[in-house]
Design goal:
This protein has about 200 residues and is mostly helical. The protein has helices at about 10-30, 50-65, 70-95, 120-140, 145-165, 185-195; strands at about 110, 115. The protein has 6 helices and 2 strands, in the order H-H-H-E-E-H-H-H. Helix 2 (about 50-65) packs parallel to helix 4 (about 120-140), helix 2 (about 50-65) packs parallel to helix 6 (about 185-195) and helix 4 runs parallel beside helix 6.
């Protein structure tokens, strides 16, 4: 059975749209102070604004890539922005450097137990590197064969994190460090986007 080109784009468009919607809701929650929009429930750590922005940018880039081939350069640019933010966040965590990216959104973050809110998880940052790299190569016809590799790695990371949450194994979702906890709705987006 042959899958038509339009039907094979449906799932990626839905996943990208959900990532944009969750990202925008999170940004609205942080902007308005209505924190339930930034978190699934009051008991959950809210998604960081920088994470929400990256999800929205990746979602927009993927939609551009799938629906408007003329705008592939736009998708390329959005993937570069996400790559820069994700690499900077990972460098902050690994090198103790502070670029102040999260402070653009939240100056004085609160805490959710031992976890500071409004800060991107290093696992999320690493997964954004794979996801943005996948979008980056997808926008270049000669490099498109590598998009599946980046998508598979991002999907594997998300699957490990989801498995860790389902089985209550913090080591699988960054529970070894209070700074690295993966937010619940960030897990969903990280799992959905690579499937696109």
């Amino acid at each position: 059975m042959e899958i038509s080109r339009s039907s094979s784009r449906f799932l990626p468009l839905v996943c990208a749209s959900l990532a944009i919607l969750l990202g925008l809701l999170t940004l609205a929650g942080w902007t308005t102070g209505f924190s339930i929009l930034a978190s699934v429930r009051a008991k959950y750590i809210p998604m960081a604004p920088s994470t929400a922005l990256c999800f929205s940018l990746i979602g927009v880039g993927l939609i551009q890539q799938l629906t408007i081939p003329v705008l592939r350069r736009g998708a390329w640019l959005l993937s570069v922005i996400v790559l820069v933010v994700a690499c900077a966040k990972l460098a902050e965590f690994l090198g103790g450097i502070n670029f102040g990216i999260d402070a653009w959104f939240v100056r004085n973050p609160g805490r959710f137990g031992a976890v500071p809110t409004g800060r991107m998880s290093p696992i999320t940052a690493a997964n954004f590197i794979f996801t943005a790299a996948g979008l980056f190569v997808l926008a270049h016809p000669c490099l498109q064969k590598w998009a599946g590799v980046f998508g598979a790695v991002a999907t594997a990371v998300a699957a490990i994190v989801l498995t860790g949450y389902c089985y209550g194994t913090p080591l699988l979702y960054g529970g070894w460090s209070s700074r690295s906890r993966f937010r619940r709705h960030a897990r969903f987006c990280c799992a959905a986007l690579p499937l696109s």
